[in-house]
Each structure stands twice: as structure tokens, then as C-alpha cells.
Amino acid sequence: MEKIITMMYVSAAFINMISFIPQVIKLLRDKTKSDAISLQTQALWLYAVIAGWLYATFVMYDPVLIMATSVTLTGCVSITSLTLFNRFKDRLFGIKDKSLIDLFIETEFAKSLFAFRGKLLKNKFQLRYTRESLSIIGASILIIIFFSAYIT
Question: Which in 63, 89, 97, 129 has the greatest CB count within 10 A?
Fold first, then answer.
């Protein structure tokens, strides 16, 4: 029974990880100030997740609990930081009417990445597909880096 509950908990952690992806993608595409997301709620949630991660890491020493709270912490930090960027991009960087993905696509790195792939982004469908791919790949890379740093 204990193994079944542990497997359920591990699967819940991966479902939790997947549940953050749509919100991260929406925030990456958002050209507004993301006013629909409450920073107060995000701050409280971030505090709770950090406390849970610290407890799992330094008190419980449980790798499964550390992994699960790391996933939640990664998603929470991603959403909070993207929301903060969207809120203050006008004041801090003078960026208006652009999403973070738009800014990334305009960089030389992204242009060289597209050239390396050998694709010319001529129509909107290709551009949208590439933006979604970059969002998912970026979020996945962050999660993998976070896991490897704390599980090993």
C-alpha cells in the first residue's frame, strides 16, 4: 500500500508540473500587465512553497517530497517572475505592446536558432508553432535543471 501511495504522489508531482505549462505559456504571450493574476496570492503561495521545500530538504530529507516541492517551487517562481516582468516591463525597460516571446524572437540568438533550423518563418502558423515550442522547451529545460540540481 505504501508503494502505491508513493507512486500516486510522484504522479501527482508530474501532473502538477504539467499544470503550470499553460499558465506559463499565457504569461509568455501576454502583451498586457497581467492584471488578472494577483501578486498578493502569488507571494503567499510562493512563501508556502518555499517553506515546504525547506522543510522537505532540511528536516524530512525525503527525496520524493523534495522532488514534488521542487516542481511546485519551479512553477510558482516561473509564474510569479513572469507576472512581475509583465507588470513592470513598461516602467523598468520601456517595453510596450510586446510579449516576452516577441522580445526573444527579436534577439540575434533566436534569429540564429531559426536560421540553424533552416526554416524561414513566413506565415503566422509557423511563427505561432515556433513560439509554443520555444515556450514549452524553455519551461522544460528550467525544470530539468532544477531537478538535477536538487535530486542529485
Answer: 89
Count other C-beta atoms under 10 Å from residue 61's C-beta. Answer: 9
**Is-above-0.85 flag for pTM?**
no
Q: Which residues contact 65 (CB under 8 A, 6 or more apart)?
A: 56
Q: What are phi and psi of 94, to 5 degrees?
A: 70, 30
Average pLDDT, the chain: 79
CA 5 to chain centre: 27
Retrieve residue 118's grid coordinates: 533552416
42 φ, ψ to 5°? -60, -40
d(CA 9, CA 64): 8
Most confident of 44-48, 64-68, 115-119: 44-48
Written as nine digits, the cell of 45 is 503561495
Query: What are the cell numbers at 61?
Result: 530529507
HEC readout, 21-33: HHHHHHHHHCCCC
CA distances from 34 to 43, 77, 78, 80, 110 (A): 15, 15, 14, 11, 25
